[in-house]
Amino acid sequence: MDADDLSAQLHRSAAEPLHAQISDILRRWIEEQRFVPGDALPTEEELQRRFGVARSVVRQALAGLAAAGLIHRQRGRGSVVATPPVLRRTLQRAGGLDEQAAARGQHLATRVLSLTEAEPTAAARAAVGPGRTWRIERVRCLDDVPVAFVRTFVPIELFPHFTAELLDGSSLLSLMRDAGHVPVGGPRQVQAVAAQGEPASVLAVPNGDPLLLLEGVTQDAGGRGLEAFSVWHRANTVFDVDARVDHQASPVQVEIRRLRALANELDHALANLESGGVS
Protein backbone atom coordinates (compact mmCIF):
# COMPACT_ATOMS: atom_id res chain seq x y z
CA MET A 1 0.00 0.00 0.00
CA ASP A 2 1.58 3.29 -1.04
CA ALA A 3 1.65 6.65 0.72
CA ASP A 4 -1.38 8.03 -1.11
CA ASP A 5 -3.51 5.02 -0.15
CA LEU A 6 -2.78 5.41 3.56
CA SER A 7 -3.02 9.19 3.52
CA ALA A 8 -6.45 8.93 1.90
CA GLN A 9 -7.70 6.93 4.88
CA LEU A 10 -7.23 9.93 7.19
CA HIS A 11 -10.07 12.42 7.59
CA ARG A 12 -8.12 15.60 8.23
CA SER A 13 -11.22 17.73 8.85
CA ALA A 14 -12.76 15.29 11.33
CA ALA A 15 -12.98 15.98 15.06
CA GLU A 16 -10.98 12.82 15.83
CA PRO A 17 -7.26 13.65 16.05
CA LEU A 18 -4.97 12.29 13.35
CA HIS A 19 -2.92 10.28 15.85
CA ALA A 20 -6.10 8.50 17.03
CA GLN A 21 -7.06 7.71 13.43
CA ILE A 22 -3.62 6.28 12.70
CA SER A 23 -3.72 4.30 15.95
CA ASP A 24 -7.07 2.80 14.88
CA ILE A 25 -5.64 1.80 11.48
CA LEU A 26 -2.59 0.14 13.04
CA ARG A 27 -4.82 -1.59 15.59
CA ARG A 28 -6.92 -2.95 12.73
CA TRP A 29 -3.78 -4.30 11.04
CA ILE A 30 -2.93 -6.18 14.24
CA GLU A 31 -6.49 -7.48 14.72
CA GLU A 32 -6.55 -8.66 11.10
CA GLN A 33 -3.18 -10.39 11.76
CA ARG A 34 -1.38 -8.50 9.04
CA PHE A 35 1.17 -8.19 11.84
CA VAL A 36 1.33 -10.98 14.42
CA PRO A 37 3.07 -11.07 17.83
CA GLY A 38 6.80 -10.63 17.36
CA ASP A 39 6.50 -8.73 14.06
CA ALA A 40 7.95 -5.25 13.81
CA LEU A 41 5.66 -2.48 12.57
CA PRO A 42 6.94 -0.07 9.92
CA THR A 43 9.40 2.44 11.31
CA GLU A 44 8.35 5.91 12.45
CA GLU A 45 9.95 7.38 9.34
CA GLU A 46 8.04 5.02 7.05
CA LEU A 47 4.72 5.62 8.80
CA GLN A 48 5.32 9.36 8.66
CA ARG A 49 5.93 9.15 4.91
CA ARG A 50 3.04 6.79 4.15
CA PHE A 51 0.47 8.72 6.17
CA GLY A 52 1.80 12.13 5.23
CA VAL A 53 1.89 13.45 8.82
CA ALA A 54 4.43 14.88 11.23
CA ARG A 55 6.70 12.57 13.24
CA SER A 56 5.03 13.73 16.48
CA VAL A 57 1.65 12.47 15.22
CA VAL A 58 3.11 9.01 14.49
CA ARG A 59 4.74 8.89 17.92
CA GLN A 60 1.43 9.74 19.61
CA ALA A 61 -0.29 6.95 17.66
CA LEU A 62 2.35 4.41 18.66
CA ALA A 63 2.27 5.58 22.27
CA GLY A 64 -1.47 4.86 22.35
CA LEU A 65 -0.91 1.32 21.08
CA ALA A 66 1.85 0.78 23.63
CA ALA A 67 -0.41 1.99 26.46
CA ALA A 68 -3.05 -0.52 25.33
CA GLY A 69 -0.46 -3.30 25.49
CA LEU A 70 -0.65 -4.01 21.75
CA ILE A 71 2.99 -3.17 20.97
CA HIS A 72 6.34 -2.92 22.71
CA ARG A 73 8.83 -0.18 21.90
CA GLN A 74 12.22 -1.88 21.58
CA ARG A 75 15.57 -0.20 21.07
CA GLY A 76 16.96 -1.18 17.69
CA ARG A 77 13.71 -2.85 16.53
CA GLY A 78 11.19 -0.04 16.83
CA SER A 79 7.61 -1.06 17.56
CA VAL A 80 7.00 -4.80 17.93
CA VAL A 81 3.56 -6.41 18.16
CA ALA A 82 3.09 -7.76 21.68
CA THR A 83 1.64 -11.04 22.82
CA PRO A 84 -1.31 -9.93 24.97
CA PRO A 85 -1.16 -11.22 28.54
CA VAL A 86 -4.07 -13.49 29.46
CA LEU A 87 -5.84 -12.95 32.77
CA ARG A 88 -7.27 -16.19 34.14
CA ARG A 89 -9.69 -16.17 37.03
CA THR A 90 -11.76 -18.86 38.71
CA LEU A 91 -15.40 -17.89 38.58
CA GLN A 92 -16.28 -19.79 41.76
CA ARG A 93 -13.60 -18.00 43.79
CA ALA A 94 -14.17 -14.58 45.33
CA GLY A 95 -10.96 -12.55 45.35
CA GLY A 96 -7.47 -13.98 45.26
CA LEU A 97 -6.69 -12.62 41.79
CA ASP A 98 -3.24 -11.45 42.87
CA GLU A 99 -2.36 -14.95 44.05
CA GLN A 100 -3.78 -16.55 40.90
CA ALA A 101 -1.67 -14.25 38.70
CA ALA A 102 1.46 -14.76 40.81
CA ALA A 103 1.07 -18.55 40.49
CA ARG A 104 1.45 -18.07 36.72
CA GLY A 105 4.49 -15.83 37.08
CA GLN A 106 2.52 -12.65 36.36
CA HIS A 107 2.15 -9.43 38.31
CA LEU A 108 -1.35 -8.02 38.78
CA ALA A 109 -1.31 -4.43 40.01
CA THR A 110 -4.25 -2.34 41.23
CA ARG A 111 -4.47 1.43 40.91
CA VAL A 112 -7.26 3.57 42.38
CA LEU A 113 -8.76 6.02 39.89
CA SER A 114 -11.25 7.61 42.28
CA LEU A 115 -12.96 7.22 45.65
CA THR A 116 -16.03 9.41 46.19
CA GLU A 117 -19.23 9.39 48.20
CA ALA A 118 -21.88 8.73 45.58
CA GLU A 119 -25.45 7.61 45.10
CA PRO A 120 -25.40 3.86 44.37
CA THR A 121 -27.22 2.20 41.51
CA ALA A 122 -30.53 0.53 42.34
CA ALA A 123 -28.87 -2.90 42.28
CA ALA A 124 -26.04 -1.73 44.55
CA ARG A 125 -28.50 -0.16 46.99
CA ALA A 126 -30.41 -3.43 47.21
CA ALA A 127 -27.13 -5.25 47.92
CA VAL A 128 -25.43 -2.98 50.48
CA GLY A 129 -28.36 -1.06 51.94
CA PRO A 130 -29.77 2.46 51.62
CA GLY A 131 -27.09 4.24 53.64
CA ARG A 132 -24.22 6.41 52.41
CA THR A 133 -21.84 4.62 50.06
CA TRP A 134 -18.37 4.95 48.65
CA ARG A 135 -17.98 4.52 44.92
CA ILE A 136 -14.52 3.15 44.21
CA GLU A 137 -13.12 2.98 40.69
CA ARG A 138 -9.95 1.04 40.04
CA VAL A 139 -7.96 -0.35 37.13
CA ARG A 140 -6.18 -3.70 37.34
CA CYS A 141 -3.08 -4.14 35.19
CA LEU A 142 -1.39 -7.38 34.23
CA ASP A 143 2.27 -6.88 33.39
CA ASP A 144 1.53 -3.13 32.98
CA VAL A 145 -1.36 -3.78 30.55
CA PRO A 146 -4.84 -2.67 31.74
CA VAL A 147 -7.06 -5.78 31.82
CA ALA A 148 -9.96 -4.89 34.12
CA PHE A 149 -11.88 -1.76 35.14
CA VAL A 150 -13.60 -2.14 38.51
CA ARG A 151 -16.45 -0.07 39.94
CA THR A 152 -17.44 -0.95 43.51
CA PHE A 153 -20.01 0.41 45.98
CA VAL A 154 -19.36 -0.19 49.70
CA PRO A 155 -21.24 1.14 52.74
CA ILE A 156 -19.50 4.05 54.42
CA GLU A 157 -21.00 2.97 57.75
CA LEU A 158 -18.81 -0.15 57.72
CA PHE A 159 -15.69 1.38 56.17
CA PRO A 160 -15.54 5.10 57.06
CA HIS A 161 -11.73 5.00 57.12
CA PHE A 162 -11.30 4.13 53.44
CA THR A 163 -9.06 6.50 51.46
CA ALA A 164 -7.62 6.31 47.97
CA GLU A 165 -4.14 6.04 49.47
CA LEU A 166 -5.18 3.09 51.64
CA LEU A 167 -6.83 1.27 48.74
CA ASP A 168 -4.12 1.91 46.16
CA GLY A 169 -2.29 -1.35 45.50
CA SER A 170 -4.21 -3.16 48.24
CA SER A 171 -6.73 -5.98 48.29
CA LEU A 172 -10.19 -4.61 49.07
CA LEU A 173 -11.28 -7.89 50.67
CA SER A 174 -8.19 -7.91 52.91
CA LEU A 175 -9.00 -4.39 54.08
CA MET A 176 -12.55 -5.53 54.87
CA ARG A 177 -11.16 -8.35 57.01
CA ASP A 178 -8.84 -5.93 58.79
CA ALA A 179 -11.90 -3.82 59.63
CA GLY A 180 -13.60 -6.82 61.23
CA HIS A 181 -15.98 -7.68 58.38
CA VAL A 182 -15.10 -11.07 56.91
CA PRO A 183 -16.25 -11.55 53.29
CA VAL A 184 -17.50 -15.03 52.41
CA GLY A 185 -18.75 -14.53 48.83
CA GLY A 186 -22.05 -14.10 47.08
CA PRO A 187 -23.87 -14.32 43.75
CA ARG A 188 -22.10 -13.44 40.49
CA GLN A 189 -23.02 -13.26 36.83
CA VAL A 190 -21.01 -12.79 33.63
CA GLN A 191 -22.18 -11.37 30.34
CA ALA A 192 -20.66 -10.03 27.15
CA VAL A 193 -21.10 -6.29 26.58
CA ALA A 194 -19.88 -3.68 24.12
CA ALA A 195 -17.17 -1.32 25.31
CA GLN A 196 -18.27 2.26 25.81
CA GLY A 197 -17.69 5.25 28.06
CA GLU A 198 -15.27 5.01 30.96
CA PRO A 199 -14.57 1.24 30.73
CA ALA A 200 -13.55 1.64 27.07
CA SER A 201 -11.37 4.65 27.88
CA VAL A 202 -9.63 3.10 30.90
CA LEU A 203 -9.01 -0.23 29.13
CA ALA A 204 -7.84 1.57 25.96
CA VAL A 205 -10.19 -0.32 23.64
CA PRO A 206 -12.39 1.16 20.89
CA ASN A 207 -16.09 1.71 21.53
CA GLY A 208 -18.02 -1.35 20.46
CA ASP A 209 -15.25 -3.86 21.17
CA PRO A 210 -16.37 -6.87 23.24
CA LEU A 211 -15.80 -6.87 26.99
CA LEU A 212 -16.74 -9.42 29.66
CA LEU A 213 -18.74 -7.84 32.48
CA LEU A 214 -18.68 -9.61 35.85
CA GLU A 215 -21.24 -8.28 38.34
CA GLY A 216 -21.89 -9.48 41.84
CA VAL A 217 -22.25 -8.96 45.56
CA THR A 218 -19.91 -9.93 48.38
CA GLN A 219 -21.54 -10.67 51.73
CA ASP A 220 -20.38 -11.59 55.21
CA ALA A 221 -21.37 -14.80 57.00
CA GLY A 222 -24.57 -13.16 58.22
CA GLY A 223 -25.66 -12.15 54.73
CA ARG A 224 -24.80 -8.45 55.15
CA GLY A 225 -23.76 -6.86 51.85
CA LEU A 226 -20.17 -5.61 52.01
CA GLU A 227 -19.82 -4.60 48.37
CA ALA A 228 -21.62 -4.53 45.04
CA PHE A 229 -19.26 -4.54 42.10
CA SER A 230 -19.02 -4.42 38.34
CA VAL A 231 -15.81 -5.51 36.62
CA TRP A 232 -15.28 -4.94 32.91
CA HIS A 233 -12.62 -7.33 31.53
CA ARG A 234 -10.81 -7.03 28.24
CA ALA A 235 -11.36 -9.90 25.83
CA ASN A 236 -8.02 -11.48 26.83
CA THR A 237 -9.63 -12.82 30.02
CA VAL A 238 -10.41 -16.50 30.59
CA PHE A 239 -12.92 -17.52 33.24
CA ASP A 240 -12.20 -21.02 34.56
CA VAL A 241 -15.29 -22.90 35.73
CA ASP A 242 -15.16 -26.23 37.55
CA ALA A 243 -18.37 -27.81 36.25
CA ARG A 244 -19.58 -31.06 37.82
CA VAL A 245 -22.42 -33.44 37.14
CA ASP A 246 -25.21 -33.27 39.73
CA HIS A 247 -25.61 -36.83 40.99
CA GLN A 248 -28.57 -36.02 43.18
CA ALA A 249 -31.68 -37.45 41.53
CA SER A 250 -34.85 -35.39 41.24
CA PRO A 251 -38.08 -36.61 42.94
CA VAL A 252 -39.43 -37.69 39.55
CA GLN A 253 -36.30 -39.73 38.85
CA VAL A 254 -36.55 -41.37 42.30
CA GLU A 255 -40.17 -42.36 41.63
CA ILE A 256 -39.30 -43.74 38.19
CA ARG A 257 -36.56 -45.88 39.71
CA ARG A 258 -38.93 -47.15 42.45
CA LEU A 259 -41.58 -48.14 39.91
CA ARG A 260 -39.02 -49.85 37.69
CA ALA A 261 -37.75 -51.86 40.68
CA LEU A 262 -41.34 -52.80 41.56
CA ALA A 263 -42.02 -53.85 37.96
CA ASN A 264 -38.90 -56.02 38.01
CA GLU A 265 -40.10 -57.68 41.24
CA LEU A 266 -43.51 -58.36 39.70
CA ASP A 267 -41.98 -59.80 36.54
CA HIS A 268 -39.83 -62.09 38.66
CA ALA A 269 -42.83 -63.22 40.76
CA LEU A 270 -44.94 -63.90 37.65
CA ALA A 271 -42.14 -65.91 36.11
CA ASN A 272 -41.90 -68.06 39.24
CA LEU A 273 -45.66 -68.67 39.25
CA GLU A 274 -45.70 -69.65 35.60
CA SER A 275 -42.88 -72.11 36.12
CA GLY A 276 -44.38 -73.57 39.28
CA GLY A 277 -41.52 -72.29 41.31
CA VAL A 278 -43.71 -71.33 44.30
CA SER A 279 -46.23 -73.43 46.32
Notes on the protein architecture:
The protein is α+β, with helices and mostly antiparallel strands. The protein has three domains: about 80 residues, Arc Repressor Mutant, subunit A, CATH 1.10.10; about 150 residues, Chorismate lyase; about 35 residues. The protein has ten helices and eleven strands. The strands form three sheets. Strands 4, 5, 6, 7, 8, 9 and 10 form a seven-stranded antiparallel β-sheet that branches. The chain has a two-stranded antiparallel sheet with strand order 1-2. α2 packs across α4.
- According to CATH, the homologous superfamily of the largest domain is Chorismate lyase-like
The strand count comes to 11
Termini separation: 98 Å
What is the level 1 CATH name of the largest domain?
Answer: Alpha Beta
Provide mean pLDDT, rounded: 85
CATH architecture of the largest domain: 3-Layer(aba) Sandwich
The backbone outline, from C-alpha atoms, is: extended
Strand content: 25-35%
What is the string of SSEs from the N terminus onward?
A: HHHHEEEHEHEEHHEEHEEEH
* Poorly predicted sequence stretches spanning 5 or more consecutive residues: none
According to CATH, what is the topology of the largest domain? Chorismate lyase
Computed Rg? 28 Å
Major pleated sheet: 7 strands, antiparallel
Q: Look at the helices and sheets and give the structural class.
A: alpha+beta
Helical amount among residues, as a percent range? 25-40%
How many separate helices? 10
What number of domains? 3
In terms of quaternary structure, what is this? single chain
